[in-house]
Structures are given as structure tokens and as C-alpha cells.
Amino acid sequence: MIEVDNIVVTFNAGTPLERQALRGVSLRLEEGEFVSVIGSNGAGKSTLLGAIAGDVLPSSGRVLLSDADVTRVSAQKRARYVARVFQDPLAGSCGNLSIAENLALAASRGRGRSFLPALRHSRLSSIRARIEELNLKLEDRLDQPMGSLSGGQRQALSLVMATLAPSSILLLDEHTAALDPRNAEFVLDLTRDLAARFNLTVLMVTHSMRHALDTGSRTVMLHEGRILLDVTGEKRAGLTIEDLLDEFRKARGEELAEDRLLTA
Ligand SMILES: Nc1ncnc2c1ncn2[C@@H]1O[C@H](COP(=O)(O)OP(=O)(O)OP(=O)(O)O)[C@@H](O)[C@H]1O
């Protein structure tokens, strides 16, 4: 479960560069809920994920994970409960280490242990089994360097790595945006599969309006640090990409031709 309660995030407070990235955002995700977040450039999407992960400290408001107030808990401590995957396929893993070493490190995330014990045979077998089960076709390449994989394979493994530790919260920051359409669909299918298998609570930021409407069970739209739209159920099922664009046009009072949001 994730709850952000009226959080305000201000960068460079008190300077000419002051910027209020979140202006009182409240959002609650129940355990196992999968929510897609869409919003124009600079809307505050990454800041919201950062506030949940503990990278960004809100100037007011609270962040709760599994009903515990973690507002002042460090990102390192929250890593036990929160996994993240970023846009850059290179961001979540180490190219010089083998695939197995990366996976073992991920499995011990948030426990503050050395990865060497994590490479025990039993742990490796369970990791291999997970890779096989997900049909990633990488189980015979576990000794190869992570850097030898394609961007799509590496992002698929980043996602698997995010689900190896016993965390139940997954934060996805445009994790398919840097992939070609075929790999993006593959990674998105894997995301749905892993979320369902492990009953993960997922907050997925995307610039694709289609993904925002057809992934997960709820769509939240952020605009200039505020939630503009929060839809689920029949209301969401009836929404089209054009409806989403209309909402943005109403909010911005202009066309969105130049915005990356226009990704179909
Ligand atoms: N570390 C920072 N220091 C100063 N300003 C920041 C910082 N991080 C974000 N901002 C500003 O806060 C606002 C929200 O940024 P954020 O990255 O959360 O938006 P976003 O919705 O993720 O945008 P995009 O889709 O372009 O990635 C922007 O105006 C951004 O410039």
C-alpha cells in the first residue's frame, strides 16, 4: 500500500530558481493496485516517485508505505520495501558484472549484505528458475556480462531484478520509453505478468496515453504539480486518448502539439 497525503515539494526554496514541483498531492494505492500516471513535461511525475522512494523530501505532507509513516525514513531503508525501474536500461544494473551477479545483488537489496553470500548455489538456482519461468531465454547466459545484453533484454532483467527482493511496491519511471515498440510491448507484458504474480502495488509513469489507459486498473493525470484526473472502473474504460488530450487542453488552454505526451 502507498499513500501520499497532501505532499508539497519545492526545489531551490527561497532562491530565484524556486520551483514547486508538487502542490499538495494526495493519492492512495491499495495493496496490489496498479496505477498508471500520465502528465505533461515537468508535471511532477518523477518527483512523485522520488518522494515515495525517499529521494525527495517533501516540505509538507506525509508518505506512508504499508500504513507506516516513512516521510523521514531514508531512501536506503525504504529500498527494502520499494523497487524502482528507470527509463535508461543501463541505470538499474552494472554492465561489468555478470547477469547472475546483478541478479544476486538485486535479490539482497535493502538488506545491507555483501552480494557474495547472495551468490550461493541455492540462490542462483532460484534465480535461474525465475528467468526460465518468465521465458526470457536468458537462463544460459547468466555468466555473461550484463553489458552484453540488448536494451530490451537489459530492461526486462531490470524489471525481474526489481521483483527479486521481497518488496511489494514497484515504481516505474517511463521504463519502456527508451525501447523500440516491440521491446516496449514485451517489457510492458512482463510488467503486467510480474505485478499479477507477486500482487505488487505499482505506480507506473508513462508518456504513452494508450499505455496509461490500458495498463493497470486506474489512470492518474498530473499537471503542474496537481492531480487533474483520477479514473478507474467504467469511467476509465470509456475514456479514449482523445478524451485525455481534451483534459490536458482544458488544463493548459492550448494545443499540446509540442509535448512528448502526444505519444499514442
Ligand atoms: N532536482 C531538482 N532541482 C530543481 N528542480 C527540479 C528538480 N527535479 C525536478 N525539478 C523541477 O520540478 C518540476 C517537476 O519535475 P519532474 O521531473 O517531476 O517532472 P516530470 O513530470 O517527471 O517531467 P518529464 O515528463 O519531463 O520527465 C520541473 O519543473 C523540474 O524542472
TrEMBL record:
<feature type="domain" description="ABC transporter">
    <location>
        <begin position="2"/>
        <end position="249"/>
    </location>
</feature>
<dbReference type="Pfam" id="PF00005">
    <property type="entry name" value="ABC_tran"/>
</dbReference>
<dbReference type="GO" id="GO:0005524">
    <property type="term" value="F:ATP binding"/>
</dbReference>
<dbReference type="GO" id="GO:0016887">
    <property type="term" value="F:ATP hydrolysis activity"/>
</dbReference>
<dbReference type="InterPro" id="IPR003439">
    <property type="entry name" value="ABC_transporter-like_ATP-bd"/>
</dbReference>
<dbReference type="InterPro" id="IPR015854">
    <property type="entry name" value="ABC_transpr_LolD-like"/>
</dbReference>
<dbReference type="InterPro" id="IPR017871">
    <property type="entry name" value="ABC_transporter-like_CS"/>
</dbReference>
<protein>
    <submittedName>
        <fullName>Putative ABC transport system ATP-binding protein</fullName>
    </submittedName>
</protein>
<dbReference type="GO" id="GO:0005886">
    <property type="term" value="C:plasma membrane"/>
</dbReference>
<dbReference type="InterPro" id="IPR003593">
    <property type="entry name" value="AAA+_ATPase"/>
</dbReference>
<dbReference type="GO" id="GO:0022857">
    <property type="term" value="F:transmembrane transporter activity"/>
</dbReference>
<comment type="similarity">
    <text>Belongs to the ABC transporter superfamily.</text>
</comment>
<keyword id="KW-0067">ATP-binding</keyword>
<dbReference type="InterPro" id="IPR027417">
    <property type="entry name" value="P-loop_NTPase"/>
</dbReference>
<keyword id="KW-0547">Nucleotide-binding</keyword>
